Amino acid sequence: SKKKGLSFEEKRARMMEIFFETKDVFQLKDIEKIAPKEKGITSMSVKEILQSLVDDGMVDTDRIGTSNYFWAFPSKAFHARKRKLEELESQFAESTQKKEALQKSIEKSKTGREDTAERAALIEELTALRQKKEQLKAEIDKYRECDPDVIEEMR
């Protein structure tokens, strides 16, 4: 049967294993030799995967002289996850407080708005008055060209 290739995420995970297991600093050519042998990552995709890890901040890189060095230590990944967890927990706490404040404001706004016969009658009266206002506005607009003020403005 055919051998199935690795997904991009699987390759990234295996590349991180190389760094975590060896706890060493590598040049690109070293990683290009190690990755295909030990982790089954094709040598053609090593550079692309390494660059994506650098872009995501999971692997550090530095240029010393004419060479680029790459490294990632398990403690850095731990601290990054810990920092992310703290950030998410603070966002969660903030959201919870906001939710509670909104719940309180909903309860506060509900007081005095209980459905009663008087309230229903007032709402009905309000809608009737709004309709009448719209009718009167339409009538005024109909006679606008006969309005002396408008005629004076035109002159």
Written overview of the protein:
The chain folds into 3 domains: 8-72, Arc Repressor Mutant, subunit A, CATH 1.10.10.10; 75-114; 116-154. 69% of the residues lie in helices and 8% in strands. It is built from 6 helices and 3 strands. The protein has helices at residues 8-22, 28-39, 46-55, 74-110, 117-142, 148-154; strands at residues 26-27, 60-64, 67-71. A hairpin with a 2-residue loop joins strand 2 (60-64) and strand 3. The protein is elongated, with a radius of gyration of 35 Å. The N and C termini lie far apart (93 Å). The mean pLDDT is 86.
Short description:
The protein has 155 residues and is mostly helical. The protein has 6 helices and 3 strands, in the order αβααββααα. The chain has a 3-stranded antiparallel beta sheet.
Task: Break the fold down into its secondary structure elements and pairings.
Elements: H1 8-22, E1 26-27, H2 28-39, H3 46-55, E2 60-64, E3 67-71, H4 74-110, H5 117-142, H6 148-154
Antiparallel strand pairs: 1-3, 2-3
Task: Give me some keywords for this one.
155 residues; mainly alpha; Arc Repressor Mutant, subunit A; three-stranded antiparallel beta sheet; 69% helix; WH_DNA-bd_sf
The count of domains is: 3
- What is the CATH third-level topology name of the largest domain? Arc Repressor Mutant, subunit A
Strand order of the largest sheet: 1-3-2
Strand content: 5-15%
Provide the CATH superfamily of the largest domain. Answer: Winged helix-like DNA-binding domain superfamily/Winged helix DNA-binding domain
The succession of helices and strands, N to C, reads: HEHHEEHHH
Gap between N and C termini? 93 Å
- What structural class results from the helix and strand content? mainly alpha
Instruction: Give the number of helices.
Output: 6
Radius of gyration: 35 Å
CATH architectural category of the largest domain: Orthogonal Bundle
CATH class type of the largest domain: Mainly Alpha
